[in-house]
Specification:
The complex is a heterotrimer of chains A (259), B (280) and C (254). By secondary structure, chain A is of the alpha/beta class. In chain A, 40% of the residues lie in helices and 24% in strands. Chain A is globular and about 50 Å long. In chain B, strand 1 and strand 2 form a beta hairpin.
Chain lengths: 259, 280, 254
């Protein structure tokens, strides 16, 4: 069974009005179990829209979205995925630990169980010593790690990430990328990852899905398969080859629209 | 247009509540555990709305001028006091803000007291300021001093925030143009502070009205609307509608001042956003 | 060090101001009805401490009851108004207009409507005055919810009530306290000033007026100092409550 199946999905905003925008046109996407898929493309190509459709934050205009064999709405109500955004979006009035506990709380988990789980998740992102702190006391990178821990807290089979490292500096970004890969490998989570950065997409992904704008659609799907994902991997010729391939796919996209 | 409609609806609701309570409420009020928790609903305590309106048209004392003329004149008198207080207060506030912006040490030394001045009821000084009347200044001016005292604070705090609102990059840009403190103030800080200044001025206007009304009462200055409220309320047992006419006058004064202050900003604030000013 | 830098200037200014005041009054031979010397006020304050204390208790009780009543009503009304968008849009401009009116002038009318021998009228005036800042600020806080939080709670399939309890209310708390800070000083001011309009003669306001009427100006000033201390106590208590209610607002490390 696939983690996500998006079939013939179209999304139109402001339908029937003068400012109508076709954000996505006839998109098909399948994410396999345990697969790490990145969505990359220029601004306005609808990659965030696609992620929001999978998360059932907005409904598709036409077509269907299936998450883990269920409709996207059902999947959301069962908390079948965890989500993280560009902004950490932590609740400033809750301690770090209680932020991670929140999705568990809403699931009705007992206090002791969710405390244990939240502590595990914080340990996973290397913040076990900061559970009692408030978000305002953490750096941006640490906040983002808390947000990831929160997304992972319900141990979802699927992780949705919308440019989660976009607001961070390059050093922090690379460290978190490695951490994220480690976590996904450990938990076997499937991931859909929206990004602007070609190198980030190539380094993290099993497959990079390239999108183009006006109307938003998928123009290429590039399987990466790097030999290793560590600092050596970042220097390997295969890594640079794939970066070039994705860059060309991104460049080529507008030409294909014209033809 | 919609605002006018809302205003009419609001007034109608207020009148309906008033008259409605007069219908259902006990004439002697509701007493619970020896404490009157609901007001008396008899005509002496709560006259009918139309009685009040009718009272406006009839003479103040037998053979005197109609009440509404007296009330309007009192309002004009207080408006003058308020205006003087508002101008003094706003100027003091502006100067303080500029001084505090210019010298960090002044801000550190004075700002706590500026804030303190509002957390403590220094209006309580009003009866004491009364002693100044007729000796070092005319009696009405003491009321203006009290109004100014209440008005300066929102301006000082709002303006300080406004003057400090330009980003570091904006200030650095001015530095790169070799603009000195004064030119930075005129070209950058003043324009940037306008969205903060005007809401502050509106707060100051309302505060100046309160200051003028309270000031008149506590200094015993004759001729204004505050004094009229006290005089009329003493006649409440014989002529209950009268004090309400003075209340209407005070409300009118508040609205007029708010309107006048809003007029100030019209030419300057087109296409600009407003900023909420938090005063304390 | 940092502490000294923030405390030293105001303390220095305060001491300098009092010394200058004393010198100006005594050297300039200024009549006490214009401005009594701080030393004279201090002597009266010590002599009258029992009276000041009792009057402060009376005014403080009025202010506290008015503050509590007005604040609770303000928060409840804001919660009700935030549930219905049209109500919000109507009530905000209304509150702004009503706030421009000299509400304190209601005092004599309330004295008529209730009875001038009870404290109810001035507590009511205090409550009405307190209501507006609390209402306006709370409503603003309830309306401003981070869209990200909204989305996040949506992904958790949280119900409206859960959302209100876990996100909307705690998120509005800083705004509520902004309103309460303004309200706490307004409450004392209103409670003291409402006494100028007649009624029961137990509080600081009536003590100030009667002392001024007997031309006992240093004594009147002593009661003013009492009023200032009362206002300060209210304000600082609110600040303390704010600290306790919102521990996340302190930045311990950068």
């Amino acid at each position: 069974m696939s983690a996500v199946v998006v079939s013939s999905v179209t999304k139109t905003f402001n339908q029937g009005r003068t400012d109508e925008v076709v954000a996505l046109s006839d998109v098909d996407l399948t994410v396999g179990d345990g697969e790490f898929v990145s969505l990359i493309g220029p601004s306005g190509c609808g990659k965030s829209t696609l992620l929001r459709l999978i998360a059932d934050l907005i409904p598709p205009s036409t077509g269907t979205v299936t998450v883990a064999g269920k409709g996207a709405g059902t999947a959301r109500k069962e908390q079948a995925y965890g989500i993280a955004f560009q902004q950490a979006g932590l609740f400033e009035w809750r301690t770090v630990l209680r932020n991670v506990e929140l999705p568990l709380e809403l699931r009705g988990m007992t206090k002791a169980a969710r405390r244990t789980r939240a502590e595990q998740m914080l340990a996973l992102v290397g913040l076990e010593d900061f559970g009692g702190h408030y978000p305002a006391q953490l750096s941006g990178g640490m906040q983002q790690r808390v947000a990831i821990a929160r997304a992972l807290a319900v141990q979802p089979p699927l992780l949705l990430m919308d440019e989660p490292f976009g607001a961070l500096d390059e050093m922090t970004r690379e460290r978190l990328q490695s951490e994220l890969l480690g976590i996904c490998a450990k938990t076997g989570t499937s991931t859909v990852f929206v990004t602007h950065s070609i190198s980030e997409a190539v380094f993290l992904s099993d497959r990079v899905v390239v999108m183009s704008a006006r109307p938003g659609r998928i123009t290429a799907s590039i399987t990466v398969g790097l030999p290793s994902r560590d600092d050596a991997g970042r220097q390997s010729p295969a890594y640079f080859d794939k970066i070039t391939e994705v860059r060309q796919a991104l460049r080529g996209a507008p030409l294909k629209t014209a033809s | 247009m919609r605002k006018v409609l809302y205003a009419v609806i609001g007034l109608a609701v207020a009148v309906a509540l008033w008259e409605g309570y007069k219908v259902v409420g006990s004439p002697d009020g509701t007493v619970l555990f020896g404490v009157r928790v609901l007001p008396r609903a008899d005509d002496l305590s709560m006259p009918h709305v139309w009685t009040v309106l009718d009272r406006l048209g009839r003479p103040e004392l037998t053979g005197g001028r109609p009440v509404w003329i007296v009330v309007v004149q009192a309002c004009l008198f207080t408006l003058g006091i308020t205006a003087a207080g508002f101008v003094i207060g706003a100027l003091v506030g502006l100067l303080l803000a500029v001084a505090m912006e210019r010298f960090r040490i002044v801000e550190r030394g004075l700002l706590p007291y500026v804030i303190l001045s509002q957390t403590v009821p220094l209006v309580a000084l009003a009866p004491l300021v009364a002693g100044w009347g007729g000796t070092i200044m005319p009696a009405w001016a003491t009321v203006s001093v009290i109004a100014a005292y209440l008005a300066f604070f929102p301006v000082a705090v709002g303006m300080l925030r406004g003057l400090q609102s330009p980003s570091a990059s904006g200030v650095e840009l001015m530095r790169s143009y070799a603009a000195g403190w004064w030119r930075t103030l005129v070209k950058l800080r003043f324009p940037a502070s306008l969205p903060y200044l005007f809401p502050a001025l509106r707060l100051a206007g309302a505060a100046a009205v309160v200051g003028a009304v309270v000031g008149e009462i506590s200094t015993g200055t004759r001729g204004g609307i505050g004094r009229l409220i006290i005089e009329y309320s003493r006649e409440a047992t014989s002529d209950p509608a009268k004090v309400y006419t003075a209340m209407l006058g005070a409300a009118l004064l508040g609205l007029v001042v708010a309107g006048l202050v809003s007029l100030l900003e019209l030419p300057l604030m087109r296409h600009r956003r407003h900023v909420e000013v938090v005063t304390l | 060090m940092k502490w000294a830098r923030s405390v030293l200037p105001p303390v220095a200014v305060g001491i300098a101001a009092i010394v200058a005041w004393e010198l100006i009054v005594s050297l300039g031979r200024i009549a006490p009805f214009i401005l009594p010397a701080p030393s004279a006020i201090w002597r009266e304050l010590v002599a009258q401490r029992q009276n000041v204390w009792e009057a402060a208790l009376a005014s403080g009780a009025n202010a506290l009851i008015g503050l509590a009543g007005g604040a609770v009503l303000g928060v409840l009304a804001a919660m009700a108004a935030s549930r219905f968008r049209p109500l919000t849009e109507v009530s905000l401009p209304f509150a702004a207009v009503l706030n421009a009116l000299p509400i304190i002038a209601l005092a004599p009318i309330l004295n008529n409507m209730f009875e001038s021998t009870s404290s109810i009228p001035r507590r009511l005036v205090t409550a009405i005055i307190v209501f507006f800042p609390v209402f306006v600020n709370t409503l603003r806080g309830l309306r401003e919810v981070d869209p990200l939080h909204q989305e996040l709670m949506h992904t958790y399939a949280a119900s409206g009530w859960t959302f209100a309890r876990k996100v909307r209310l705690p998120g509005a708390l800083p705004y509520v306290f902004t309103g309460l800070r303004q309200a706490s000083s307004l409450a004392v001011i209103a409670a003291v000033v409402a006494e100028y309009f007649g009624g029961l003669q137990t509080g600081l306001g009536s003590r100030i007026t009667s002392a001024a009427a007997f031309t006992a100006y240093p004594r009147a000033w002593a009661f003013v100092v009492g009023a200032c201390l009362l206002g300060l106590a209210f304000y600082l208590t609110t600040l303390l409550l704010e600290r306790l209610a919102m521990p996340w607002r302190t930045r311990l490390i950068a």
